[in-house]
Amino acid sequence: MSFSHGRRHPPGAFNASYLDYTLQDGTAERIQCPTLVCDAEEDMFFKGEPEQLYNHLTCPRTLMAFTAEEGAGAHCHPGAMRLSIARIYDWLDDTLAATA
User: Fold this and answer.
1) How far apart are alpha carbons 58 and 26 in whole angstroms?
2) Helix or strand (DSSP H, E) at 13
3) 92: Cβ contacts below 8 Å, ≥ 6 apart
């Protein structure tokens, strides 16, 4: 058994637990820390959802778009990992420096 999201459950149930969270339950509005939302232009799994999440956030937030032209348009940006990681770490550097 493993523990996650405050529950004890068998492997595989972890992914199903994501169904408990929606944009309608107010969870996104309760996030207080600076939040980076990444959007892939050709995401085959979550098309349009990053922007919806971004719009629900009330904390300091950034919507970072990745494009097919950059090679980063697919879900999780596998065609341009160096680019996506560099941009994400730059965001972390800037965001953490602003809180120091």
Assistant:
1) 11
2) helix 13-17
3) 36
Q: Is 44 exposed, middle or buried (0-12, 13-18, 19+ CB in 10 A)?
A: exposed
| In the chain, domain spans | 1-30, 31-100
The per-residue pLDDT of the chain, averaged, comes to: 88
Q: Hey, what amino acid is at 77?
A: H
**41-58 residue pLDDT tens:** 999 999 999 999 999 999
Backbone angles phi, psi at 30, to 5 degrees: -85, -10
Which one-letter amino acid corresponds to residue 57? L
pTM to 2 decimal places: 0.80
For residue 37, give Cα distances in angstroms to 2, 7, 43, 48.
28, 26, 13, 12
The CA distance from 58 to 47, in Å, is 21
The residues near 84 (Cβ < 8 Å, ≥ 6 apart) are 38, 66, 72, 77
